[in-house]
Amino acid sequence: MMNLLIRNCRPMGGAATDILVEGGRIAVIAPGLAAPDGVAVEDGGGRLALPAFVEGHTHLDKSLWGMGWWKNEVGPRLIDRIDGERAERKKLGLDPARQSDRLAKEFLKRGTTRIRSFADVDTEIGTAHNDALVALRDRLRGTMDIQVVAFPQSGVLVRPGTAELLEQALRNGADIIGGLDPSGIDRDPKGHCDLIFALAAKHGVPVDIHLHEPGELGAFAMELIIERTLALGMQGKVVVSHAFCLGDVARADALYAALGEAGIGLATTAPPSRPVPSVKKARAAGVSIFGGNDGIRDTWTPYNMPDMLQRAMLIGLKNEFRRDDEVELAFATVSDWAAEGCGFADYGLGVGARADIVLLEAETVQEAVVATPPQRVVVSHGRVVARDGVLLA
Ligand SMILES: [Zn+2]
């Protein structure tokens, strides 16, 4: 918990001012502040100041970052990727503790201090990935906030023993219970949703379900999720990730309205290759919609970077955002709305918020999104933790 004076920066592209941080929180925002005795001073040099970014959906545990280029020869179906990954991670000797630590730090260097990460749980690795992420979360507390989602990547009902492992993962400290394509993988939508929500109710944890299923199949699963959210009073505690069906089902408007009423959030990666939920339609229905990379350099995909400004740009492109007021929405999906949707507290650049701040060379928020400037000063809890891509201590 640090004290810091940032001189001459421009919060959200506004007029130049100073930011005084006390005890790790923003205490005063005003121009020409005097530095209290012994307070570290950071010269903002007139740069843009943004709230540090939020990654709302990634898989820290299985990135191959730093392990050399991996030649991707995986088949085209979802199940090819799921089965291929289980075989490859064994061959590659993927160490989830090392890889999640590595990728979390790449995020931090580029200005992200809050992350929701899934951790694979299955009958081959048990809770090892989950436990590695829980340990990382605890070790980085005070610098980064990491939420761990116990995630049945290989299905639950199709692999007996997985439900018990998910429960063990929650006992071992996972924050959230994950689910996956109730029809497409488990082939039992009611059974899958009942099981996931029963675990959530028993352990008092939120739910985050990967729903890749398109069209009516996805819409049906979404209705099951909405029913259970309402029945258990879990409004504000449930997220549907991907929700591709909202991009191609005819009755999407009714689903957005139902999601809004049930307080269910949406995580989107906005991939170029799939129909996706609309940021504007979601917000108009009162739905929290926020951005995430999904996997980064893993056996699923060679793409994606631990840089939430780049993700905001991709969300803007996919949503055809051009006007300044639209590109600002893209930034909201990796900042305010992601903090809101994931439940990260004390967020933003207001007085009283935790002092997690990024300084970078851009005139406006919009320019930061489209130019993704690499030179950044990253402040976490009022401490400068990274400068121009280099972590400090
Ligand atoms: Zn994912």
TrEMBL record:
GO molecular function, one term: hydrolase activity, acting on carbon-nitrogen (but not peptide) bonds, in cyclic amidines
Domain of life: Bacteria
InterPro entries xrefs: Amidohydro_3, Metal-dep_hydrolase_composite, Metal_Hydrolase, Metallo-hydrolase_Enzymes
The Amidohydrolase domain, residue ranges: 102-386
UniProt xrefs under PANTHER family: BLL3847 PROTEIN, CYTOSINE DEAMINASE
Protein name per UniProt: Cytosine deaminase
Organism: Falsiroseomonas stagni DSM 19981
